[in-house]
Design a protein that fits this description.
Elements lengths: L1 E3 L19 H10 L5 E3 L5 E3 L1 H9 L4 E6 L6 H13 L6 H18 L4 H13 L15 H16 L3 H4 L1
Parallel strand pairs: 2-4
Antiparallel strand pairs: 1-4, 2-3
Helix pairs in contact: 1-2
Length: 168
């Protein structure tokens, strides 16, 4: 449900996060893809979780914001636990995941990019000389590892006279 941003009450004195940090990147993200996670409020429109998102939406000049209202009936402990859980029990991307997201984004951009006649022609010509896959791995018969291991062991045994030397 949407409510007016001015209707959301923020009790600054009980907020865990006192410093919002730089919200410009968050505001930029919200302006591009929208507010993915709604702001959490109680039945009296008190902010429970999503302070940085709320600040970012305000900085964008939004008049209304998507919220999820949770009935707490004044349970301060539960309100506190939700604020903590939202900020504490999360995992940032690893470096590999960040790089993977950028690679994927570039792939998607390349797929969507309109290609001119000569580029299409070049890609077609280039495709003529790229080796085709020999066989579809999905259609190959399953390999039985114990049979292969026993065959390799027999070959090694025949060469060396002892099984363990080359297997290790």
């Amino acid at each position: 449900m949407k409510i007016g941003i001015d209707q959301i009450q923020v009790a600054e004195d009980v907020r865990i996060r006192q410093e919002t940090g730089d919200i410009s990147s968050l505001a930029d993200s919200i302006s591009k893809v929208g507010l993915i996670n709604p702001i959490i409020i109680d039945e009296d429109n008190n902010l429970i979780a999503g302070y940085r998102r709320l600040c970012a939406c305000r900085s964008l000049g939004w008049k209304e914001v998507e919220v999820k209202m949770v009935v707490f009936k004044g349970d301060q402990i539960k309100m506190h636990e939700i604020e903590v859980a939202e900020n504490f029990f999360r995992k940032d991307f690893t470096v590999e995941e960040v790089l993977s997201t950028e690679r994927r984004r570039l792939q998607l951009l390349e797929q969507q990019r309109k290609k001119g006649f000569f580029e299409k022609l070049w890609l077609w010509l280039k495709g003529l000389f790229v080796p085709k896959p020999v066989a579809d791995p999905q259609r190959l018969p399953p390999i039985n590892p114990p049979v292969i291991i026993s065959q390799v062991s027999e070959e090694i045994e025949n060469e060396e006279g002892e099984v363990g030397d080359k297997v290790r």
